[in-house]
Each structure stands twice: as structure tokens, then as C-alpha cells.
Amino acid sequence: MARTIILSLLAVVLPFAAYLFWLRFERWRERLPPEKRPVPWVPLLAVGIVLALVVVFGEALLGGAPAGGRYVPARIENGQLVPGQFEAPVK
């Protein structure tokens, strides 16, 4: 779950980072003085939300536990914490 949240947040931030990188590259290439340019917030946010939805749907379709699997909760074995996990179904 944490992985999905982190990937979704990165997907939202990625268009902004790409825009800033492109802006810096253009300024460096053109050797232009920094100018005030309005940031296209709505298109960047829309692209970020679409990317986040792709991440969430991708995780839902490709990730997760096997069908019919059994959940084994977290436990302590020999003083070590063994995290909870899904076991594949026994055939």
C-alpha cells in the first residue's frame, strides 16, 4: 500500500519536475536571463493525476496476492519479526 501511495505521489510530481528541468535547460541553452513565466498548473496537474491513475490501476491489475491465496499474518519466529504475506494456494 505504501508503495502505491509513493508511486502515485511521484507520478503527480513527475510532470512538474520535467517542466522545471525543461525550463532550466531552455534557459541554459538560450542563455536567457530568468524571466517570470506563468507555470501551467492545470495541465501539469492533469497529467500528474492521469499518471497517478495509471499507477493505481496498474498496481490493481498486475500486483497483489494470487487468487485463492491465504494470508499469513505477521508473527515472531526465533525473536525475528516475519512480516505478513500471502501464500499461494495449495493445489
Automatic annotation (TrEMBL):
InterPro entries noted in UniProt: DUF6111 (IPR046093)
Sorted UniProt keywords: Membrane, Transmembrane, Transmembrane helix
A matching Pfam family: DUF6111
Transmembrane segments: 42-62
Highest classification ranks of the organism: Bacteria, Pseudomonadati, Pseudomonadota, Alphaproteobacteria, Rhodospirillales
Superkingdom in the source lineage: Bacteria
Protein name (database record): Uncharacterized protein
Organism, scientific name: Zavarzinia compransoris
